[in-house]
Amino acid sequence: MCDNDIHPGLVENWTLSRRGFVATGLIAGLSTAAHAAAAKVTEKDVTVTTPDGQADAVLFHPAGKGPWPAVLMWPDIMGLRPVFREMGRRLASDGYVVLVPNPFYRNKRAPVMAGAIDFNDPETRKILIGYRQAMTDDAVDRDAVAYLAFLDAQPQTAKRKRAGVQGYCMGGPLSFRTAAAVSGRIGAVGSFHGGGLVTDTPASPHLLIPKTHAAYLIAVAKNDDARQPAAKDELKKAFAAAKRKATVEVYPADHGWCVPGSQVYDQAAAEKAWSELLKMYKSSLV
Predict the structure, then answer these.
(1) Helix H or strand E encompassing 58
(2) Which of 274, 267, 232 is nearest to 252 (CA)?
(3) Nearest-5° angle of CA 58, CA 64, CA 67?
(4) φ, ψ for residue 186 (rounded to 5)?
(5) What is the span of the domain harbouring residue 238?
(6) Taking the CA of residue 144 as centre, how many other CA atoms within 13 Å lie in the half-sphere pointing to its CB?
(7) What keywords tag this UniProt record (predicted)?
(8) Residue 4 domain-assigned (yes or no)
(9) What is the pLDDT of residues 208-257, one digit of tens each?
């Protein structure tokens, strides 16, 4: 769970147009070639039927017939919003069928908050944490199964290749749960400044590792590591015990650094994390 102790005053301001951000190169440091590739991506707002209702989401895939490997992208606690559309579009331009859901569809359609989001504001924090608490572990598992089934129903999806899942902030634990809930399908898991990957409860995400069959990339924020320094070692031990291929690395950046619009966005560190993610997908989604 994200809280204001981890990222005080974390604000996303996505009031500039997509064109303005592309023109200034602020979308995760995209190169001119990457911009051109992203322009050839098909984007579609979709509705995914889950056991709990109708989830709004956005689907991306490269122009053409494919097929390409599928990836589920879990947003952070501020939910599906323009910046995650940009990130989904960018990933699709690298050759993937990408689904970015609104994780809070039980409460509200995306975007669940308009304009700049200040997580340090008590009322904002109360609303977003309330949305997150409505997502029980069992509910997340049901959603994960539905989202992967939706991806596999797309004609562009390479169903014979393993799928990936990646998550930011609260999306880190959700990615672990996805890998366990659809263990026969998920071949790679990326967690970026994931919150609460190791807890002292029986529901701790790291205890799910033996139930999965995936490679892992765990990118830890430096302030998360300072707050819970033993977590990275617990993760490494859990991966080793389960014999899962994993990279666990503390980045020299603060919680939220991978998402443009954050006050702590760190382009160099975000680009490194993105590059490592693509390397893992290339080797594991086969």
Answers:
(1) strand 53-62
(2) 267
(3) 80
(4) -85, 125
(5) 11-284
(6) 28
(7) Hydrolase
(8) no
(9) 999 999 999 999 999 999 999 999 999 999 999 999 999 999 999 999 99
